[in-house]
Amino acid sequence: MRAAFRHPLFRNPAVLAGGGILLLLVLMAILAPLLSHADPLAIAPRFRLKPPSPQFPMGSDKLGRDVLTRSFYGARVSLLVSICVATIAISTGLVIGLVAGYIRRLDGVIMRVMDGLMAIPGILLAIALVSLSGSSLYTVIIAIVVPEIPRVARLVRSVVLSIREEPYVEAAVGLGTSTYRILTQHILPNTIAPLIVQGTYICASAILTEAILSFLGAGLSSEIPTWGNIIADGRDVFQRAPWIILFPGAFLAATILAVNILGDGLRDTLDPRMKKRLGA
Protein backbone atom coordinates (compact mmCIF):
# COMPACT_ATOMS: atom_id res chain seq x y z
CA MET A 1 0.00 0.00 0.00
CA ARG A 2 2.79 2.41 0.90
CA ALA A 3 4.55 1.64 -2.38
CA ALA A 4 1.37 2.51 -4.31
CA PHE A 5 1.38 6.02 -2.83
CA ARG A 6 4.96 6.51 -4.10
CA HIS A 7 3.67 6.39 -7.66
CA PRO A 8 4.40 9.61 -9.61
CA LEU A 9 0.65 10.26 -9.84
CA PHE A 10 0.51 10.88 -6.10
CA ARG A 11 3.42 13.32 -6.30
CA ASN A 12 1.80 15.49 -8.95
CA PRO A 13 0.18 18.58 -7.35
CA ALA A 14 -2.37 18.92 -10.16
CA VAL A 15 -3.55 15.32 -9.70
CA LEU A 16 -3.80 15.79 -5.94
CA ALA A 17 -5.63 19.12 -6.18
CA GLY A 18 -8.02 18.12 -8.96
CA GLY A 19 -8.62 14.67 -7.55
CA GLY A 20 -9.20 16.05 -4.05
CA ILE A 21 -11.80 18.59 -5.19
CA LEU A 22 -13.49 16.01 -7.39
CA LEU A 23 -13.57 13.50 -4.54
CA LEU A 24 -15.34 16.05 -2.31
CA LEU A 25 -17.90 16.72 -5.03
CA VAL A 26 -18.50 12.99 -5.53
CA LEU A 27 -18.99 12.50 -1.78
CA MET A 28 -21.35 15.48 -1.77
CA ALA A 29 -23.44 13.85 -4.48
CA ILE A 30 -23.46 10.40 -2.84
CA LEU A 31 -24.24 11.75 0.64
CA ALA A 32 -26.84 14.29 -0.53
CA PRO A 33 -29.68 12.72 1.55
CA LEU A 34 -27.51 12.90 4.67
CA LEU A 35 -26.18 16.41 4.06
CA SER A 36 -29.66 17.85 3.59
CA HIS A 37 -32.96 16.37 4.72
CA ALA A 38 -35.04 18.72 2.58
CA ASP A 39 -36.92 17.39 -0.43
CA PRO A 40 -35.37 18.82 -3.63
CA LEU A 41 -38.78 18.64 -5.36
CA ALA A 42 -40.95 19.98 -2.52
CA ILE A 43 -42.68 23.27 -3.36
CA ALA A 44 -43.19 25.76 -0.49
CA PRO A 45 -44.58 29.09 -1.78
CA ARG A 46 -44.30 30.73 1.65
CA PHE A 47 -40.49 30.39 1.44
CA ARG A 48 -40.31 31.83 -2.07
CA LEU A 49 -37.05 33.70 -2.92
CA LYS A 50 -35.65 33.60 0.60
CA PRO A 51 -32.07 34.95 0.77
CA PRO A 52 -29.27 32.81 2.25
CA SER A 53 -29.92 32.16 5.94
CA PRO A 54 -29.38 29.39 8.51
CA GLN A 55 -32.59 27.76 7.27
CA PHE A 56 -31.60 28.12 3.59
CA PRO A 57 -27.78 28.35 3.44
CA MET A 58 -27.91 29.11 -0.30
CA GLY A 59 -31.36 30.66 -0.35
CA SER A 60 -34.52 29.38 -2.00
CA ASP A 61 -35.83 29.59 -5.55
CA LYS A 62 -39.07 31.08 -6.87
CA LEU A 63 -41.01 27.95 -5.85
CA GLY A 64 -39.60 27.90 -2.33
CA ARG A 65 -37.23 24.98 -2.94
CA ASP A 66 -33.90 24.86 -1.12
CA VAL A 67 -31.12 25.78 -3.59
CA LEU A 68 -28.45 23.97 -1.57
CA THR A 69 -30.40 20.71 -1.57
CA ARG A 70 -31.16 20.97 -5.26
CA SER A 71 -27.47 21.69 -5.95
CA PHE A 72 -26.47 18.55 -4.02
CA TYR A 73 -28.86 16.42 -6.06
CA GLY A 74 -27.86 18.24 -9.25
CA ALA A 75 -24.32 16.98 -8.69
CA ARG A 76 -25.65 13.43 -8.93
CA VAL A 77 -27.10 14.06 -12.39
CA SER A 78 -24.03 15.88 -13.69
CA LEU A 79 -21.56 13.27 -12.45
CA LEU A 80 -23.72 10.37 -13.66
CA VAL A 81 -24.01 11.92 -17.12
CA SER A 82 -20.27 12.63 -17.30
CA ILE A 83 -19.25 9.11 -16.27
CA CYS A 84 -21.71 7.44 -18.67
CA VAL A 85 -20.71 9.71 -21.55
CA ALA A 86 -16.98 9.16 -20.98
CA THR A 87 -17.39 5.37 -20.68
CA ILE A 88 -19.54 4.99 -23.80
CA ALA A 89 -17.52 7.45 -25.91
CA ILE A 90 -14.18 5.88 -25.00
CA SER A 91 -15.41 2.31 -25.49
CA THR A 92 -16.99 3.04 -28.88
CA GLY A 93 -14.24 5.37 -30.09
CA LEU A 94 -11.58 2.87 -29.03
CA VAL A 95 -13.03 0.11 -31.20
CA ILE A 96 -13.51 2.44 -34.17
CA GLY A 97 -10.02 3.90 -33.82
CA LEU A 98 -8.36 0.48 -33.56
CA VAL A 99 -10.13 -0.81 -36.66
CA ALA A 100 -9.55 2.38 -38.69
CA GLY A 101 -5.89 2.66 -37.72
CA TYR A 102 -4.91 -0.95 -38.29
CA ILE A 103 -7.08 -2.10 -41.21
CA ARG A 104 -6.06 0.20 -44.04
CA ARG A 105 -8.90 -0.60 -46.42
CA LEU A 106 -11.47 0.55 -43.84
CA ASP A 107 -9.57 3.62 -42.71
CA GLY A 108 -10.81 6.00 -45.41
CA VAL A 109 -14.50 5.13 -45.08
CA ILE A 110 -14.57 5.18 -41.29
CA MET A 111 -12.66 8.43 -40.91
CA ARG A 112 -14.79 10.24 -43.50
CA VAL A 113 -17.83 9.36 -41.39
CA MET A 114 -16.04 10.62 -38.29
CA ASP A 115 -15.05 13.83 -40.09
CA GLY A 116 -18.68 14.36 -41.06
CA LEU A 117 -19.78 14.10 -37.43
CA MET A 118 -17.02 16.44 -36.29
CA ALA A 119 -18.08 19.02 -38.88
CA ILE A 120 -21.35 19.55 -36.98
CA PRO A 121 -21.03 21.67 -33.80
CA GLY A 122 -21.44 19.33 -30.84
CA ILE A 123 -24.05 21.39 -28.98
CA LEU A 124 -26.20 21.76 -32.11
CA LEU A 125 -26.02 18.04 -32.80
CA ALA A 126 -26.95 17.31 -29.18
CA ILE A 127 -29.94 19.69 -29.33
CA ALA A 128 -31.12 18.10 -32.58
CA LEU A 129 -30.87 14.56 -31.19
CA VAL A 130 -32.72 15.48 -27.98
CA SER A 131 -35.42 17.27 -29.98
CA LEU A 132 -35.94 14.21 -32.17
CA SER A 133 -35.85 11.60 -29.39
CA GLY A 134 -37.52 13.44 -26.52
CA SER A 135 -36.19 14.63 -23.19
CA SER A 136 -34.86 11.91 -20.89
CA LEU A 137 -31.62 10.98 -19.16
CA TYR A 138 -30.94 8.29 -21.77
CA THR A 139 -31.41 10.61 -24.75
CA VAL A 140 -29.31 13.35 -23.12
CA ILE A 141 -26.44 10.90 -22.60
CA ILE A 142 -26.65 9.63 -26.20
CA ALA A 143 -26.88 13.19 -27.53
CA ILE A 144 -23.67 14.14 -25.72
CA VAL A 145 -21.89 10.88 -26.58
CA VAL A 146 -22.30 11.09 -30.36
CA PRO A 147 -20.14 14.24 -30.87
CA GLU A 148 -17.43 12.84 -28.55
CA ILE A 149 -16.93 9.51 -30.34
CA PRO A 150 -15.09 10.96 -33.39
CA ARG A 151 -12.58 12.74 -31.14
CA VAL A 152 -11.74 9.50 -29.32
CA ALA A 153 -11.59 7.57 -32.58
CA ARG A 154 -9.14 10.04 -34.12
CA LEU A 155 -6.95 9.94 -31.00
CA VAL A 156 -6.81 6.12 -30.98
CA ARG A 157 -6.25 5.99 -34.73
CA SER A 158 -3.25 8.33 -34.45
CA VAL A 159 -1.73 6.09 -31.76
CA VAL A 160 -2.34 2.96 -33.83
CA LEU A 161 -0.79 4.52 -36.95
CA SER A 162 2.39 5.27 -35.02
CA ILE A 163 2.58 1.84 -33.39
CA ARG A 164 1.66 -0.53 -36.20
CA GLU A 165 5.04 0.08 -37.92
CA GLU A 166 7.01 -0.76 -34.78
CA PRO A 167 9.35 -3.78 -35.08
CA TYR A 168 7.56 -5.82 -32.43
CA VAL A 169 4.23 -5.41 -34.25
CA GLU A 170 5.82 -6.35 -37.57
CA ALA A 171 7.41 -9.36 -35.89
CA ALA A 172 4.02 -10.45 -34.56
CA VAL A 173 2.54 -10.13 -38.04
CA GLY A 174 5.44 -12.14 -39.49
CA LEU A 175 4.83 -14.92 -36.96
CA GLY A 176 1.23 -15.19 -38.12
CA THR A 177 -0.35 -13.70 -34.99
CA SER A 178 -4.05 -13.01 -35.47
CA THR A 179 -5.25 -9.45 -35.94
CA TYR A 180 -7.30 -9.68 -32.76
CA ARG A 181 -4.28 -10.64 -30.65
CA ILE A 182 -2.13 -7.94 -32.21
CA LEU A 183 -4.75 -5.30 -31.48
CA THR A 184 -5.47 -6.43 -27.92
CA GLN A 185 -1.98 -7.45 -26.76
CA HIS A 186 0.40 -5.16 -28.65
CA ILE A 187 -1.53 -2.03 -29.63
CA LEU A 188 -4.33 -1.61 -27.08
CA PRO A 189 -2.03 -1.21 -24.02
CA ASN A 190 -0.39 1.79 -25.67
CA THR A 191 -3.72 3.59 -25.95
CA ILE A 192 -4.61 3.38 -22.24
CA ALA A 193 -2.67 6.44 -21.01
CA PRO A 194 -3.94 8.91 -23.65
CA LEU A 195 -7.47 7.54 -23.25
CA ILE A 196 -7.41 8.13 -19.49
CA VAL A 197 -6.43 11.74 -20.09
CA GLN A 198 -9.00 12.14 -22.87
CA GLY A 199 -11.65 10.66 -20.57
CA THR A 200 -11.20 13.46 -18.03
CA TYR A 201 -11.71 16.11 -20.70
CA ILE A 202 -14.79 14.28 -21.98
CA CYS A 203 -16.20 14.30 -18.43
CA ALA A 204 -15.71 18.07 -18.16
CA SER A 205 -17.24 18.63 -21.60
CA ALA A 206 -20.21 16.38 -20.78
CA ILE A 207 -20.96 18.23 -17.53
CA LEU A 208 -20.92 21.57 -19.32
CA THR A 209 -22.97 20.32 -22.28
CA GLU A 210 -25.62 18.80 -20.00
CA ALA A 211 -25.89 22.10 -18.13
CA ILE A 212 -26.23 24.01 -21.42
CA LEU A 213 -28.94 21.64 -22.68
CA SER A 214 -30.86 21.96 -19.41
CA PHE A 215 -30.47 25.74 -19.41
CA LEU A 216 -31.84 25.91 -22.97
CA GLY A 217 -34.77 23.66 -22.08
CA ALA A 218 -33.49 20.85 -24.30
CA GLY A 219 -32.23 18.63 -21.50
CA LEU A 220 -33.96 16.90 -18.61
CA SER A 221 -37.38 18.02 -17.38
CA SER A 222 -37.28 21.33 -15.53
CA GLU A 223 -38.43 19.82 -12.22
CA ILE A 224 -35.44 17.47 -12.11
CA PRO A 225 -32.66 19.11 -10.08
CA THR A 226 -29.70 19.68 -12.38
CA TRP A 227 -27.31 22.60 -12.24
CA GLY A 228 -28.49 23.79 -15.65
CA ASN A 229 -32.15 23.63 -14.62
CA ILE A 230 -31.50 25.50 -11.37
CA ILE A 231 -29.65 28.26 -13.24
CA ALA A 232 -32.42 28.41 -15.84
CA ASP A 233 -35.03 28.78 -13.07
CA GLY A 234 -33.16 31.76 -11.66
CA ARG A 235 -32.53 33.76 -14.80
CA ASP A 236 -35.92 35.54 -14.65
CA VAL A 237 -35.34 36.72 -11.07
CA PHE A 238 -31.59 37.23 -11.18
CA GLN A 239 -31.72 40.85 -10.02
CA ARG A 240 -33.90 39.96 -7.03
CA ALA A 241 -32.35 36.58 -6.19
CA PRO A 242 -28.85 36.23 -7.68
CA TRP A 243 -28.04 33.33 -5.35
CA ILE A 244 -30.20 30.98 -7.45
CA ILE A 245 -27.67 31.29 -10.28
CA LEU A 246 -24.46 32.03 -8.39
CA PHE A 247 -24.30 28.99 -6.12
CA PRO A 248 -25.14 26.26 -8.71
CA GLY A 249 -22.84 28.11 -11.11
CA ALA A 250 -20.05 27.89 -8.54
CA PHE A 251 -20.59 24.12 -8.19
CA LEU A 252 -20.54 23.76 -11.98
CA ALA A 253 -17.37 25.84 -12.36
CA ALA A 254 -15.60 24.02 -9.50
CA THR A 255 -16.40 20.60 -10.97
CA ILE A 256 -15.21 21.48 -14.47
CA LEU A 257 -12.09 23.15 -13.08
CA ALA A 258 -11.29 20.12 -10.90
CA VAL A 259 -11.71 17.68 -13.80
CA ASN A 260 -9.55 19.81 -16.10
CA ILE A 261 -6.81 20.16 -13.47
CA LEU A 262 -6.91 16.40 -12.91
CA GLY A 263 -6.67 15.84 -16.67
CA ASP A 264 -3.66 18.14 -16.96
CA GLY A 265 -1.94 16.33 -14.10
CA LEU A 266 -2.63 12.92 -15.63
CA ARG A 267 -1.34 14.14 -18.99
CA ASP A 268 1.89 15.42 -17.47
CA THR A 269 2.44 12.17 -15.59
CA LEU A 270 1.29 9.54 -18.09
CA ASP A 271 2.44 11.06 -21.40
CA PRO A 272 6.17 10.33 -21.82
CA ARG A 273 6.52 13.02 -24.50
CA MET A 274 5.04 15.63 -22.18
CA LYS A 275 7.33 14.51 -19.36
CA LYS A 276 10.31 14.84 -21.70
CA ARG A 277 9.31 18.36 -22.75
CA LEU A 278 8.92 19.33 -19.10
CA GLY A 279 12.32 17.84 -18.29
CA ALA A 280 10.87 15.23 -15.91
Automatic annotation (TrEMBL):
Pfam families cross-referenced by the UniProt entry: BPD_transp_1, OppC_N
Membrane topology per record: Multi-pass membrane protein
Domain of life from the UniProt record: Bacteria
Ranges that cross the membrane: 79-103, 123-146, 243-266
Domain called ABC transmembrane type-1: residue spans: 79-263
The keyword Transmembrane appears for this protein: yes
Keywords: Cell membrane, Membrane, Transmembrane, Transmembrane helix, Transport
Main localization, broad class: membrane
InterPro entries: BP-dependent_transpt_permease (IPR050366), MetI-like (IPR000515), MetI-like_sf (IPR035906), OppC_N (IPR025966)
PROSITE patterns hit by this protein: ABC_TM1
Coiled-coil region list: none
Subcellular location: Cell membrane
Similarity section: Belongs to the binding-protein-dependent transport system permease family.
PANTHER family given in the database record: ABC TRANSPORTER PERMEASE PROTEIN, OLIGOPEPTIDE TRANSPORT SYSTEM PERMEASE PROTEIN APPC
Designated name of the protein: ABC transporter permease
Organism lineage: Bacteria, Pseudomonadati, Pseudomonadota, Alphaproteobacteria, Rhodospirillales
